[in-house]
Amino acid sequence: KQEVTQIPAALSVPEGENLVLNCSFTDSAIYNLQWFRQDPGKGLTSLLLIQSSQREQTSGRLNASLDKSSGRSTLYIAASQPGDSATYLCVGVGAGSYQLTFGKGTKLSVIP
Amino acid sequence: EPEVTQTPSHQVTQMGQEVILRCVPISNHLYFYWYRQILGQKVEFLVSFYNNEISEKSEIFDDQFSVERPDGSNFTLKIRSTKLEDSAMYFCASSQGLAGGREETQYFGPGTRLLVL
């Protein structure tokens, strides 16, 4: 059964700083890996999706990497802004499954 | 931009009562999902639904739960006899289904917060 772990649980940084969020997963037979953002009262927003054949995806100031052999993914946020404050969720999909397996998330606070 | 909507945003019910949570998926999507998040815990998969059938369900999705697509737009989750431990945020999601529902992005609604007293 796929397990997803995220470190740290919470992170506070000053505005403008670059930061990295870490995620590890137990099953290397992963179909794809997604990063979501969770804002209170606004549900879940998909940020990046990395398919198992890919190593990274970029969208604006966000870059996500996937290393299946080590069971790790990272989300890099460049030049952080207060609007980036949210909980970031690492989510895996195992081979042959429709279900998303979520990590517990990293709560990011960007201080102006 | 199309989005998934859910009603109600909050629901309070007494233990043992039936509740129906409603979702309107994005109109051209073919796969539908329910997830839940107990306060302070991870988001957990409940069920996926395609072509009017359950395609996958978790061990959480027992006989107390059922899903239905009663018409061309709504997707519902029914809990027959609620328990205290059913208190959670329930998220509906949908995906296009172009790749068989597995590789693609799932779009989530804002959630329904259910409180069972």
Question: What's the gist of this structure?
Answer:
The complex is a heterodimer of chains A (112) and B (117). Chain A has 112 residues and is an all-beta fold.
Describe this structure in words.
The complex is a heterodimer of chains A (112) and B (117). Chain A has 112 residues and is mostly beta strands. In chain A, 0% of the residues lie in helices and 59% in strands. In chain A, strands 2, 4, 5, 9, 10 and 11 form a six-stranded mixed sheet that branches. A five-stranded antiparallel sheet of chain A has the order 1-3-8-7-6, with no helix packed on it. Chain A starts with a strand and ends with a strand. Chain B is mostly beta strands. Chain B starts with a strand and ends with a strand. The mean pLDDT of chain B is 92. Classes of the chains: A mainly beta (112), B mainly beta (117). The interface between A and B is medium-sized, with 24 and 26 residues.
The Cα radius of gyration of chain A reads 13 Å
Structural class label of chain B: mainly beta
Helix content of chain A: under 10%
Largest interface: A-B, 24 and 26 residues
Q: How does the overall form of chain A come out from the CA principal axes?
A: globular
Q: Which stretches of chain A of 5+ consecutive residues score pLDDT under 50?
A: none
Number of helices of chain A: 0
Biggest sheet descriptor of chain B: 7 strands, mixed
What's the average pLDDT of chain A? 91
Rg of chain B, Cα atoms, Å: 13 Å
What is the share of helical residues of chain B?
Answer: under 10%
Secondary structure tally, helices of chain B: 0
Distance between the termini of chain A: 41 Å
Topology record:
The complex is a heterodimer of chains A (112) and B (117).
Chain A: E1 4-7, E2 10-14, E3 19-25, E4 30-38, E5 44-51, E6 56-59, E7 62-67, E8 72-77, E9 86-94, E10 101-102, E11 106-111
Parallel strand pairs in A: 2-11
Antiparallel strand pairs in A: 1-3, 3-8, 4-5, 4-9, 6-7, 7-8, 9-10, 9-11
Chain B: E1 5-7, E2 10-13, E3 19-24, E4 31-37, E5 43-50, E6 53-57, E7 65-68, E8 75-79, E9 88-95, E10 107-108, E11 112-116
